[in-house]
Design a protein that fits this description.
Length: 554
RNA sequence: GGGCCUGUAGCGCAGCAUGGACAGCGCAUACAACUAAAAAAGUUGGCUUAACUGCCUUCUAAGCAGAGGGUCCCAGGUUCAAAUCCUGGCAGGCCCGCCA
């Protein structure tokens, strides 16, 4: 049932003017209790009358069984029939359950995330990347699309050689005695501490790697396998599943052929040193080198071939790269060059940039070891959740304690990150993120558990029969109705923060309701149970879209 | 020098796409002594895991209600109406590599 449409039809009947009612009909601010409002300013010009007068005249003409109308200043305020609306919404949710809010867009969407380096463990920035990737994947599945998760592993280059060189010098052929990606990462830190950046040895090593020197390749394979093993453990814990992984080492040479082909067709040019470049000056992107004067490929070159390969692999309708905002320029160049080469699919390629996460002391630098790595952050948060749980519940099994603290800890991190607009930088304040009060993941889980508890303890069945309905009850139900729209908006804007916000507002309304009316033992118990149940379905859907798990008991 | 992004209460954020009625939310918020003309701010102290005020015999108080706190960065412009759109500034971040 589309309530807005009912109102618009009624308006159209009375106002015989060419006006876009969909555009003007609005949801009034909180202090106005109406469900919808129509400002009469736009009519003032047409009728040459004061909008207050117009509203007064119209109010008596518009009638419907679904709503009542009031003229308040220059506004026509519409009050939906609460019982009717509540019944319609609850009916639909209890029927569709966790499918409420689903859509059928039927597109194929490929998402690239998080793109690790094989010289160090995942850090806070990757966490942001991962949680955005997870959440968007869930959102696009909810809107009825086929989602394919791909990953790009940065497994070659100078930075990889650094950890290799440090291992060669100081590693004594040791095997990992800790989580293997951390083991590798320690050598990366060791390199910048003990070895000179200008060290000729590092270039020598890269040359050896490129010329397939047996020892170098073996060391590379060994250390990469350690790093990847450790990174996969983190993925598993965080809930990341990858459908196809691309390794840069497999593509950095293939890009070269693409560029040379483009050069032959005179799409690209050569400078005096024989380096091939794309002239992007008219796009305000300057001249971009695609092949070095010695003929080797650069970063963007390998991405060109990966981009083409992806399209050949999946023929997707949309490709989303989740990569930090410092690479905005890189992706502009990448897409322009692909366009120059005549690949039409680039029009469906999209770079979702996300902002930096800072520590209170400043930017994270893995070279200096001043990072919050993903694993220790997860450990810290779950440990904290555990302490909170132990404070509250004395007789809880160890297994249950572990399970709950893991879910709560991860929810705290995920929500903390997702609640920020992806584009904005923010400071990760460990002290604040551990707080379990206010606008946090644990607050949402707690609210969910409260709802579950009511349903568990009640002996009655939810039935939608409405005698009376209070404001608190009505507001919860109306908010449930907004879920569909919010899912659509966050999909359209690539922004899970909208859903995070929605979930919090919904939970807040529910807690107000919870406080106001006691469900169990109420005369209206069955009706109130139907609100609780519908709330539970929707909040669970919302939290799952944010990649958070829920708990029946907190 | 050029490009992109950000600027909303003490702190952290939402709203900006699609301009509308009083700009929402979370965190924070005690007292005494001292420094101080005052304000702001700071220092010290005790209690102790606790700090604005109220609410646990009631479905989990990880909660709810209430209070104070705002030049929506600045200046112009468009409009009946601007936090929202446009122009120009100011401040901060990122990028503009034959690194990845």
């Amino acid at each position: 049932m589309d309530f807005k449409k009912e109102i618009i039809n009624a308006l159209k009947k009375e106002i015989n003017q060419d006006i876009n009612f969909e555009e003007y009909l609005e949801v009034p601010p909180d202090h106005v209790s109406a469900d919808y409002a129509f400002p009469c300013f736009s009519l003032a010009g047409i009728y040459k009358k004061n909008p207050v007068e117009i509203s007064k005249e119209l109010v008596n003409k518009i009638k419907s069984e679904y709503f009542s109308v009031k003229a308040e200043g220059p506004y026509l305020n519409f009050f939906l029939n609460k019982k009717f609306v509540a019944e319609e919404i609850l009916k639909q949710i209890l029927k569709e359950k966790e499918n409420y809010g689903n859509k059928k867009e039927n597109k194929k969407i490929v998402i690239e995330s998080p793109g690790p380096n094989t010289n160090k463990p995942l850090h806070l920035g990757h966490l942001r990347n991962m949680v955005l990737g997870l959440s968007l994947s869930n959102i696009y599945k909810k809107t009825g699309n086929k989602v394919i998760n791909v990953d790009i592993v940065n497994d070659r280059g100078v930075h990889i050689c650094k950890s290799m060189l440090a291992y060669k010098k100081f590693g004594k052929n040791k095997k990992p005695d800790k989580k293997p990606d951390h083991f590798v990462g320690d050598f990366y830190v060791l390199y910048s501490k003990k070895l000179n950046e200008k060290d000729e040895e590092i270039n020598e090593m890269l040359r050896k790697w490129e010329s397939n020197d047996k020892d170098t390749i073996n060391l590379w394979k060994k250390m990469n396998s350690w790093a990847i093993k450790g990174i996969n453990e983190t993925y598993k814990r965080f809930g990341i599943k990858i459908n196809k992984t691309y390794y840069e080492s497999n593509y950095y040479k293939k890009g070269k052929e693409l560029v040379l082909k483009g050069y032959k067709k005179e799409i690209f040019k050569k400078n005096k040193d024989n380096a091939v470049y794309a002239d992007l000056k008219d796009k305000n992107l300057g001249n971009k080198i695609l092949l070095r004067s010695d003929g080797t490929s650069v970063y963007v070159t390998q991405d060109l071939s990966v981009a083409v390969q992806r399209y050949n692999d999946f023929k997707m309708d949309k490709m989303i790269y989740i990569v930090a905002n410092e690479q905005i320029y890189h992706f502009k160049v990448l897409f322009e060059v692909l366009k120059m080469l005549g690949y039409k699919f680039v029009s469906n390629y999209y770079h979702l940039p996300y902002g930096m996460i800072y520590l209170p002391e400043g930017k994270m630098k893995s070279r200096e070891g001043t990072v919050v790595d993903a694993d220790s952050l997860m450990d810290d948060m779950t440990e904290l959740a555990k302490k909170e749980l132990e404070k509250r519940y004395k007789n809880i099994s160890k297994k249950e304690l572990e399970k709950r603290s893991e879910i709560i800890g991860l929810a705290a991190i995920k929500y903390f990150i997702l609640n920020h607009d992806p584009l904005k930088d923010f400071v990760y304040n460990p002290k604040e993120s551990i707080s379990f009060e206010g606008n946090t993941g644990p607050y949402l889980l707690y609210t969910y558990a409260r709802a579950s508890s009511i349903l568990r303890k009640s002996r009655k069945k939810p039935v939608i029969k409405i005698k009376d309905i209070s404001d608190e009850e009505y507001l919860v139900i109306k908010k449930l109705y907004d879920f569909k729209e919010t899912v659509g908006n966050s999909a359209e804007k690539y922004d899970p923060a909208l859903l995070a916000n929605y979930a919090f507002e919904l939970a807040k309304l529910f807690n107000e309701f919870y406080h106001e009316s006691k469900v169990i033992g109420s005369e209206r118990e069955q009706f109130l149970l139907s609100i609780v149940l519908a709330f539970k379905y929707v909040l669970k859907s919302a939290l799952n879209l944010l990649s958070m798990e829920t708990l029946e008991k907190m």
